[in-house]
Amino acid sequence: MSSVLLRVNIDRIKVRSNGDLLEKDNADPDDKKANKNNAIVATLVYPRSGAPHVVSAKQLNLEHDKQMTFMLTDFWDSGLFKEEVDTETILRIQVTDRDERSKFDKVFTAIFSTLMGAGLGAVTGGISNVFLGAIAKLGIKKYTGTISAGGDEKIDVIGEAEYKLKTSNIPEKLTLKLKAPKTIKKKVLVFEGSKVVRKERTVVKKGPNGEVVLQLSATPL
User: Fold this and answer.
1) Model pTM?
2) Helix (H, G, I), strand (E, B), or coil: what is residue 66?
């Protein structure tokens, strides 16, 4: 089997740390009320000639050490890809830090605006639909522990994994162990006895940070 239509859906995901303080340790009432989001950013590396990367992203609200499940029968709930793959590709999954939705939108708007302005790719869906896709060279880097759109706009990665897929042997279920590429510290308001003080706290430790289970299928083309 050479070329296939590859479908990738998220079955479930669980992280030890979502990139934020435990609620009991958080002394900032405004921070607790803020609309925060994690995201899954999925990348297919050179799935076919002329496509260096195919990328999609979904915003999520992940909780510490709590499993989130998806509707596999609903692509708009669980789907990451419906893409043509020729022979082989690398599937990379990155889970981002828990940040304001506006920050996520700003980073990805910058990335996709750059792509479209240069005529390098196409976008399906939109920011408001929390489902994005593009074919082009993106500013998504491995091993740096961040996803960046240039300048100071970046989102930390709290878990990542990758797997080499061959179209001749596509697994139906794929469990990927997520690892945080770096330790993440934040200056936050915490309780210290009867006082509230601002201190630097580790919110994610470098190393294992949960897992994601994917459902895959391939149709010959």
Assistant:
1) 0.81
2) coil
